[in-house]
Amino acid sequence: MLAPLHRWIWRDAGRRVQKLIRFGETETDGGRDILRAAEVTADPLLRRLYLVHAIDELRHGVLFRQRAASLLPALPQTTKPRFRADWIAPGGHGLDDLQVDKESDAQMLAFLHLSEKAAASRFTVYRNVLTDDPPTCAVFDEILHDETFHMNYTLVQLARIAPQHQRSRLWRARLSRMWKVYLRLAAGLAGVIGGALLTIQYFVILPPFAWLARRAARREPAGWTPIVPERRGSLTRQY
Ligand SMILES: [Fe+2]
Ligand SMILES: [Fe+2]
């Protein structure tokens, strides 16, 4: 349903490069967090899977950055900063919402499963709207293949680690993600409303003050003016 909006977001070449760079950063950050999860887990199988997963995410970061670098030379010299629309078209896995050291294996897997699922569905949309740019499309295709594997292995491992609490863990992770999505949207909306209010203030409230200040400046006598005799004494204290 939002495909036309995403098509508009990705159509701009400058924004496309900025988004790819940003995706590269978040994939690399996600990879570091999963590497940390591999260090803290006591489960040997999970450790191996987390290591493979972390290597995948770090590679995704490199792929996004390389694609952004190859698009850069084609950009005009005077590219202006663009509206990034990160809260409409986010990238990455949202792992920055998670404190890896404090989560249990089951909670980590539930969160990872939902994050990978969301990333896979977002990257599918981005790939579909980027048909005019086959190399970027191919990058999303390659990454999508890994994200589908991440989405599936996390669910299988969650079923192994917490067979009785699989549903409740997923719901807990889902509610936590929904809260974070709400906060992200609210922050984006607050930014837009704040910008609009400040613009209105600038054009409606400031002009009368500017006019009063200019009128007061015109009434001020020009040059040096003598002060009253009572204030002529030397200073004897600081205040
Ligand atoms: Fe990834
Ligand atoms: Fe992933």
Topology record:
Blueprint: H1 3-11, H2 13-40, H3 44-71, H4 105-129, H5 134-161, H6 166-204, H7 206-219
Helix pairs in contact: 1-4, 2-3, 3-5, 4-5, 4-6
The structure holds fe (ii) ion (FE2) (2 copies).
Residues 27, 57, 60, 143, 147 line the site of one fe (ii) ion.
Task: Explain this structure.
The chain is mainly alpha-helical. It has one domain (3-197): Ferritin, core subunit, four-helix bundle (Ferritin, Up-down Bundle), CATH 1.20.1260.10. It is 72% helix and 0% strand. The protein contains seven helices and no strands. Helix 1 packs across helix 4 (105-129), helix 3 runs antiparallel to helix 5 and helix 4 runs antiparallel to helix 5. The chain is elongated. The N and C termini lie far apart (68 Å). The mean pLDDT is 88. Bound molecules: fe (ii) ion (2 copies). One fe (ii) ion is lined by residues 57, 93, 116, 119, 146-147, 150.
What's this, in brief?
This protein has 239 residues and is mainly alpha-helical.
CATH architectural designation: Up-down Bundle
Number of domains: 1
Query: CATH top level?
Result: Mainly Alpha
**Rg, Å, rounded:** 27 Å
- The number of distinct β-strands equals 0
Beta-strand level of the residues, as a percent range? Answer: under 5%
Give the CA-CA distance, first to last residue.
68 Å
